[in-house]
Records
---
Amino acid sequence: MTNQTLNDRKVGHQDVKIAAKGVDVFYGSSHAIKHVDVSILDKTVTAFIGPSGCGKSTFLRCLNRMNDTISICKVTGDILLDGKDIYDREVDPVQLRAKVGMVFQKPNPFPKSIYDNVAYGPRIHGLVATKPDLDDVVEQSLKRAAIWNEVKDRLQDPGTSLSGGQQQRLCIARAIATAPEVLLMDEPCSALDPIATAQVEELIDDLRSNYSVVIVTHSMQQAARVSQKTAFFHLGIIVEYDDTTKIFTNPTDQRTQDYITGRFG
Amino acid sequence: MVDMSILSSHHGSKAAADRSRQRHWAEIRLKAYGIAAISIAGLALVALLWSVFTKAGLVLTESYLTLPVTISADEVDPAAPNTGDFNGLRQQALRAAFPQVEDRAGRRALSDLTSGGSTFDLRDAVVRDPAMIGKTVPFRFLASDDVDLYLKGEFGTLTPATHSGRLSMTITGDAAELFSTANDFGVILALTKSELIEQARFQRRQAALQENGRRVTAENAAAMADGAAKDAALAQAQTFATERDRLAGIADGYEARAARAGGTEELTSSVASVLIRAQGGWFKLTEVSLTGARAQVIVPPTSTDEMGPESWGVLVNDLPEASRKLTDAQIVWVESLRERGAVDSSFNWRFLSAGDSREAELAGVWGAVVGSFWTMLVTFCIAFPIGVLAAIYLEEFAPKNWITDLIEVNINNLAAVPSIVYGLLGLAVFLNVFGVPRSAPLAGGMVIALMTVPTIIIASRASIRAVPPSIRDAALGIGASKLQTSFHHVLPLAMPGILTGTIIGMAHALGETAPLIMIGMVAFIVDIPGGVLEPATALPVQVYRWSDFPERAFEAKTAAAICVLLVFLILMNAIAVFLRKRFERRW
């Protein structure tokens, strides 16, 4: 388990990776996200916390346009990735998702071999040309996801034969293998036991050196443990967005205070 | 307001116990209904298979008559052996075996013992081995379907009757007078008398019908006013009465004959046949009295001396001659060949390897099997890609709006359209507009594909819908396009279900007859189709055609063709199961 000192939490730079400006999301007639502004920093773990149904997962799915698959969902406002609007007509959502990887709440490995699970992304994007290179990418991804030692002898076994925690780490390896710039994680530990959760959290902290990681979580302890920045969502708006230390020790808003002390939510 | 705190006491009460007992019984009843339903279905299946397989059993073997045949160089030119008069040779061989048959009708009946197809067998044998020309060689002639059925016991069997007297005979030409010292013929006489009583009963029933007519016309007449119409009705009633009396008279005559002890009675073709075997000769009884009988000589005996009971026999075939296709004379010839050891049978490869034929003994099912194969191949090649791609489009790509809803409803409707309608469509569009050859498996396959596509679409959509959305999310999340997601992940996962649906659709289509009839695949086609453009028939159509033929032997062929159809079906399902297992293992 990570135990960051307050100094660890200092983000040494202010490079904005993703900037959301005035984002509204509608599901048919219901207004799920109301005018959200947020800037997500590069090489930082940003946590979204908030009670159920507050729109944090919905907002997360806007960041790689996964909401496009829901036909009644409509997104307005600007979301800029490295200064370019991802909802621009010119942008291919497929290319975007290669850059903005995603890990889901429930481990969802493909019913293929462990190797093929990880190699699928590099293959379809043509990241490497030769088989040895592909093997190397697979190995590195699995190592970064801290699962290599457990699966190196059975890469041809189906991914679904692994345990829940292993499956989730495999999914993370799969996301890493595509070499994304941003990694979105939608409650990645909600289906895991404490030991697997600890492994995944350690992994998230480690990933910070290369990626901008956005994690949605219901566990405030988890947010406190792994993130440098925290956004508190409530009823479709961001109530407060600041350094994690600040949010958990000295929140500005009363609602944040109530939520993190367990008075509601 | 209900006080819920006291409701808990309900659980221990008698009412609760009663309810639980009722639930328990309801469960037991449901189980019993289920077992009963399954048993009934199982029994029906067993009965169906039993009736089909027992009938089809007759086709397992075919019978041969081995006769010496002289292949003279006059009849068959050694230079061109395939032009000889082999039909003449076949008839000569039979005549040589039964030289006493001299009249035309008899010779035709004799020639009917062997199949016309054996002519071609003989020709092929001579062409293969021209050294046979100029020699007398034994040749196995294929027996005709009626002889074959007789040998399999379908036209009655000759059962020996007891006799104890000494037989003496006088022969004049074709007729013979037989006398026995014991009451051997009296037994046979009693047989004919019971038949007389049966006939009397029939005439009485006819008379009763006439009496009904008379009574009704007389009542009508009584209600009429006097005049021409009434007179005509009365005259009509009188005619009925006369006819009634005439029929009653005939019945009286039969009954009197049956009641009279002794006398002479004719053995008609509607009573059991009685054959006498004596001194190498065969007789067929035509008239019988207490002490003697008149008979027709079928095979003359070697001597006409009086003989003891051990050297003659009475053979009865309970099936009357009128009820079977083989006459008594033909049965005698077959029996006499059997005594010479010239009858044998072997496994009926011909049924499995030959095309259709008008002659039951020559007809085979292979042409229909190949036709069905080509048809199914065309169906699969058209219906599977169209059905699966349509299902993927509708499930994964199409927007959900009223147009796709309409399409969905119509696909479901299409699956329920009667197959003959598809046949009409195929006739009107494929044959008349596109000019697809009539009777060809291509046309049949296209029509059947039309009716299979909705089934495949429905099954494939259900199967695609059952793929967990998390798999789609996973693929989309690492940047796979919609197409890649569908073809790399969704389709392979849905494939077992799609294959099951396809096989159900194809199995349904395999048994489909009506649309094939509409596009002309019901034609009589002897050749084995060599491709999808050649005229062909299909198994269910073959079954339908054979079931319509009057020949008795085709009844067995029909059952056997059904068995082949079932085997074809099981084979198809086995392939599907195999493919499904493979797909599941790969993933």
---
Amino acid sequence: MTWVLPLDIGLVMGLILAWPVLAFAGSFRLLGFPDLTLEGSLPTGAAVYAVAILNNWSLPTAIIAAMIAGACLGALTAIIHLQFRVNKFLAGIIVVAISYTLDLRIMEASNIGLIQRPSVFDYVAPLNGLIASPFQLGTILLLASVLIVGAAVLIMAINTSWGIRLRVAGSNPNYARALGISVPAYLIVGLAITNALVAGSAAFLAMYQGFSDVGMGQGILIFALASMTIGERLVPEQRLPIPIFVVVAAIVGSLVYEILVAYAVRLGLAATDLKLVTAFFVLAVIAMRIRKHDDEFLEVIR
Amino acid sequence: MMTIAPRVIVSVRDLVVSFSRWGQRVTAVDNVSFDVSSGEWLLLVGHNGAGKSTLLKAIGGQLQPDAGEVLIGGRHVRALKPRHLATTVFTIHQDPLLGTAPLLTVFENLFVADPKARRSQNSKPALMGRYASLLEPIGLADRMKQPVKVLSGGERQLLALVIARLRETPVILLDEPLAALDPSKTEVCIEEIAAMHRESKTVIQVAHDIRALQARADRILALRQGRILAHADVAPKNSIRPDS
Amino acid sequence: MPVLSRPQVHSLISAFFGSRARTLSIATLLALGLFSTQFVTSGTAQEKYTIAIANLMQVPALDDALEGMKAELTKEGFVEGKNVEYIYQNANGQIQLTATIANDIVARKPNVIVSLTTPMTQAVVKVARPANIPVVFASVTDPVGAGIVRSVDIGELNITGTSDAWPFEAQMKLIREITPNVKRLGLLFNPGEAASQYGLREVRKYAPELGFTVVEGPVSSTNDVFPVARGLVGRVDALFLSSDNTVISGMAGALQVAIQNKLPFYVGDSGTVQKGGLAAVSVGYYGLGQDTGRLVARVLRGERTIPTIVEKGTEIYVNARAAELMGVRIPDAVLKRATRVYQTIE
């Protein structure tokens, strides 16, 4: 029985953190922008959410406030890149640095505890442990529905004429300009949206783990990269249009990664071994040669 | 029979474009002036480094000249807003990878370029039908759902041409479009350009090898070291030109 | 320029891994192998207690505390290997892992969870509370501010622990005693650490009363310690740091600045005095550990509502060698009261 439990926490974390992976993969693969901002928009989302809750804002308003903060950070990265002609990676790093100080100011502390505070998971708590199962069913179902609905909305948006223009701006800015598409405008909006999603999920994470801490973002970038890589290798991409592939791969990658981590933690691996084991698993997945054709196709989106 | 004077659509006046290359100042376009009539197919020829590509870029509003001006339809090309410029001029680049968005499908590339696409009476099947007939001549009609990245360079270039036709901009600039194509595709490419010319579009094409194009184009302008060496009419002008 | 071409790498890897099935089975074998090294045989029929320890990151002070705790528990009859099994989890600084670790620990249904550091304690309490597993935190500086307990004086069900709130007043009084001419204190701290934030507030509160002005030297990583300390020269009469993990890791830099500029360098705990800090009024972490052990013992015996223990911090540690290098003469009265006088710098 206890051996099934890591699957439970792995699913929960994987579902919550699927959003940062989605955001990263989306901006990287679809917008052509490797956006490192998420290492900053995650803790800032949590910070804004925590402060809002401390001030007795309602849950939905607090989450929205967090998303707006994330959107601002994303837009800032785009603006720094466009206006000051700063390299894309560097622009993200600068904003992450800014967000650190911002978080300390927002929270007026480096950490805010949320253990006793109202949480969205309270509403579904009765479902947890249903049917004598050890799974946090309520939490998982809630997160899964949010993810499915959100992903569906994203995919629909991506296929509208607006979404297509967004993707053109990312895939080939020259072509976009030739068509009269304003690349700066779309880039700013694109990064704002992805980082809003990260910040929103950060609110859920803070709710779930019971605190918001200024150091929450550390390691999230490597996590997103690893998850994205795992997902892209595991998901059969031939039948799927590129945007759907990216979305599905991100979700699958996040789930697989977090479940792996949960099992590694269960195995009692000290954190240093944990990094080695997860690196090993990522490599093992990458090394799996599924079909030759896939390599060509994956080259397409590289 | 009336001789109707052809309307000038592109006007290059005293154009000078220079830039720094490895610390040295190079004057790519040196005091060039000429007019292009509406519906004309103009070939720009010359040796490498003669300034043809730079001149084309200047005509397309892609760079700021040191002196002189380019007018399209009587308006300064540099003063045009990006949206307006996009409906006035379309450029086909020498490098086929520049002309299309690799991560989007063939259909999506056409859709985003299509000025009529967003009208509500255009349903997706209708659009697909229209694009299929456009893609037929270049052999890509059955590949609409594929991402452009899987296309070969030559196929992407042909797709760019179809896009140019779709956009229906009055002026189309081509920078050595045949350069990246293998011989089997050359004829199709020329056919596409000819089709645009028949649709009364103004075509300005930088070309290296003019043998294949001689019969089709209207005029040739030869450049050497940034200056006009010579220009000549290729085909005898028709006395009566239909109004565009 | 890659050493091997991509196809070559692929054929190497596939020669090694072969089919997907082989890869997965190798991976599973490795996992099982790693698991088997963690296997602990139990199987006796006597009453066995499981004590789970959850830590965010390993720091000498916390190691001392754990040592003290285990020693105290052994004294009280809870002996490792006999009737107690310890489970360790350490997130190695990755806050990302706290929720996963907390869930894992609670799922194992230990008799009590000992948690260290603020974020880990928060994560653990969040999960342990609904599962009705008691939590004893060790050296969380501000448990009230962190939302872990409502007050340090009144006990709460299933949650108690020891707090290592910095004894600022005592510390600054000590500074006054050893170097009466010091007016401007340069405080080195990492604003990103919960303990330091709390500490900053306290320092700002007590400093004016005792006649000090505080100059802040915020540090965001270990590498910043040296340049920030250098930047404080000329603006301060003494350097000061408390139990801030980041600064402690980089204290060699600050020490160098202190010695070069003959600045007294006051620190916050015994371990750092050993490394060259001039003096500290410390929470003895070993002692804190012992107090924690006592709490754990009480919980294991059935008590569920115990108020938090706030360590007083009355031990004085000085380093004579450091005093020499910094040009400071430690008054005899202090030396007599000191719990320990270090003669060398480690």
